[in-house]
């Protein structure tokens, strides 16, 4: 059964270039799953802040973690936040400076950040985070100590008030510009993994298979 569309409130409805807006969960989920890097927007002492971190999606929720001493984490607990995730797919070169653009896929989530307070659930979420990126790694790691568990906080936001904004394709030059003597088109961009660099202090030299399969995008 397809997931329902996220609710495009007045805060999340795409107004500028509204034709690029998307509210179906399939596209929202696909973008969240393709890019672990997120930016968390919040207000601290009356001033706006945006902090980068890693996010992961499980069903209808997005999670992120951080140090229990982090001011971002402390400020976001049970507070309204904005979570954004963006993939940059290409630079769009037009025949005028005005019509240059970017091909991208982005998601914006609004809502109240919930603290994962149950220790068992927190460990499960962290395990899912690691396993989602590197399948099979969690069970090979040293177990988390009580200190490490206490020092780590996990927050969640429900995918409820959300929207995606997507641009793809060539430049949108008007017909009268098409004969200009200047190159126009798209310079594609991608994130790619390079050969793993082992820690020289360790004894395991052969990279695990999941590193060769790792991909963003």
Plain-language structure description:
There is one protein chain. The chain has helices at 25-34, 71-76, 119-133, 146-151, 209-213, and strands at residues 21-22, 37-44, 47-58, 61-67, 80-93, 101-112, 114-115, 152-158, 161-167, 185-188. It is an alpha+beta fold and 217 residues long. It has a single domain, classed as Pnp Oxidase, Chain A. Strands 1, 2, 3, 4, 5, 6, 7, 8, 9 and 10 form a ten-stranded antiparallel beta sheet that branches. The longest helix has 15 residues, at 119-133.
Q: What is the element layout, followed by pairings?
A:
Layout: E1 21-22, H1 25-34, E2 37-44, E3 47-58, E4 61-67, H2 71-76, E5 80-93, E6 101-112, E7 114-115, H3 119-133, H4 146-151, E8 152-158, E9 161-167, E10 185-188, H5 209-213
Antiparallel strand pairs: 1-9, 2-3, 2-5, 3-4, 4-8, 5-6, 5-10, 6-9, 7-8
- Give the DSSP E fraction (strand runs of 2 or more residues): 25-35%
Number of domains: 1
Would you give the CATH topology?
Pnp Oxidase, Chain A
| Gyration radius from CA atoms, angstroms | 20 Å
Q: Segments where pLDDT lies below 50 for 5+ residues?
A: none
CATH superfamily: Electron Transport, Fmn-binding Protein, Chain A
Number of strands: 10
Q: What's the CATH C level?
A: Mainly Beta
Mean pLDDT over the residues? 92
Task: Report the order of strands and helices.
Answer: EHEEEHEEEHHEEEH
Distance between the termini: 25 Å
Shape estimate? globular
- Quick one: biggest sheet? 10 strands, antiparallel
| CATH-scheme architecture | Roll
Fraction in helix? 10-25%
The count of helical stretches stands at: 5
Sheet/helix structural class: alpha+beta
């Amino acid at each position: 059964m397809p997931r329902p569309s996220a609710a495009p409130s007045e805060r999340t409805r795409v107004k500028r270039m509204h034709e690029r807006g998307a509210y179906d969960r399939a596209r929202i989920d696909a973008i969240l799953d393709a890019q672990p890097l997120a930016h968390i927007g919040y207000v601290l002492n009356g001033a706006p802040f945006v902090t980068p971190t890693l996010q992961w999606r499980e069903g209808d929720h997005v999670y992120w973690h951080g140090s229990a001493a982090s001011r971002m984490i402390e400020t976001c607990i049970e507070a309204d936040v904005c979570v954004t995730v963006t993939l940059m797919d290409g630079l769009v070169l037009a025949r005028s400076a005005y019509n240059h653009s970017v091909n991208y896929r982005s998601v914006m989530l609004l809502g109240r950040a919930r603290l994962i307070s149950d220790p068992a659930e927190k460990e499960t979420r962290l395990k899912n985070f690691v396993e989602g990126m590197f399948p099979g790694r969690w069970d090979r790691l040293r177990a988390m100590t009580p200190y490490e568990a206490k020092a780590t906080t996990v927050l969640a936001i429900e995918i409820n008030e959300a929207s995606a904004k997507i641009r793809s394709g060539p430049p949108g030059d008007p017909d009268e510009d098409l004969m200009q003597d200047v190159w126009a088109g798209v310079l594609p961009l991608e994130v790619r993994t390079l050969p793993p660099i082992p820690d020289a202090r360790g004894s395991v030299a052969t990279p695990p298979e999941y590193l060769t399969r790792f991909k963003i995008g």
